[in-house]
Design goal:
Elements (H helix, E strand, L loop, with lengths): L2 H13 L6 H8 L3 H13 L4 E4 L3 E4 L12 H17 L1 H18 L2 H9 L11 H16 L1 E8 L5 E14 L2 E8 L4 E6 L3 E9 L8 H14 L5
Antiparallel strand pairs: 1-2, 3-4, 3-7, 4-5, 5-6
């Protein structure tokens, strides 16, 4: 990585976090801590308002803005395919937001790089996306944001029907399928539900922000289950 690119990356990290240690920066950038200390000193001398000290951490004072971002060809490819995947699989509201965000990225690019966006040969066809799933995806996003319970009329892999009242926590996309991570009241435990197996859905009352039933608890539970699972034959 060129030194100029490394200084830019350090500035980005320090703008996006409260405190970042030299050790963290060194690990992310694959350089020594001594190099990080030297780079931070040079950033400060160049006028970047870096606060902090060695052993404690660093940050950039709020309100500091960088010049318009410049992306290389690989970064443009990553942005375009990411936006196109959201447009294809993210539901109507996310799709529209992705298109709007991509348009803003194009406007922020210099003229000689705008052609990279149109020329990117990376696509995400949405021929398999059921419009109804897109609408339900939006409903679930709203329920997660507002902490509304959901009543799901659900069919499992054996086509067994059930009704579940769940506390929606997060959505995850795996190989063309959206999964809802939730606390299931019927099972008194965490469960994941495939969106394409939801037959009907309706919002219920609010659920509390309760310790042991948050998204972080769900992630820890899944990690434990993965570690405890027997090895594949």
């Amino acid at each position: 990585m060129r030194r100029a690119d490394r200084l830019f990356q350090i500035t980005q990290y320090l703008r996006g976090r409260r405190l970042t240690t030299a050790r963290q920066l060194a690990e992310w950038l694959a350089v020594s801590e001594r190099t990080v200390y030297r780079d931070i000193r040079d950033l400060s001398l160049s006028g970047v308002p870096v606060d902090g000290e060695a052993g404690v951490g660093y940050r950039i004072k709020p309100g500091y803005d960088l010049p318009p971002l410049m992306f290389n060809a690989d970064e443009i490819d990553a942005l375009v395919i990411g936006m196109r995947m959201v447009q294809a699989w993210g539901g109507p509201q996310l799709s529209a937001s992705a298109a709007s965000a991509l348009a803003k990225v194009v406007l922020a690019l210099p003229k000689d790089k705008r052609d990279f966006v149109e020329a990117t040969p990376l696509f995400a066809p949405n021929t398999q996306m059921d419009p109804l799933h897109g609408e339900r995806l939006e409903e679930i996003r709203q329920a997660i944001s507002s902490r509304h319970k959901l009543l799901l009329h659900y069919s499992d892999a054996q086509q067994r029907a059930s009704q579940r009242v769940v506390w929606p926590l997060a959505l995850a996309f795996f190989g063309g399928t959206w999964l809802l991570a939730a606390w299931c009241e019927a099972r008194d435990d965490f469960r994941s539900f495939r969106l394409d197996r939801v037959q009907q859905m309706s919002a219920q009352g609010y659920y509390p922000d309760r310790n042991g039933r948050r998204l972080a608890d769900f992630v820890r539970a899944m990690q434990r289950a993965t570690k405890e699972a027997p090895p594949a034959p």
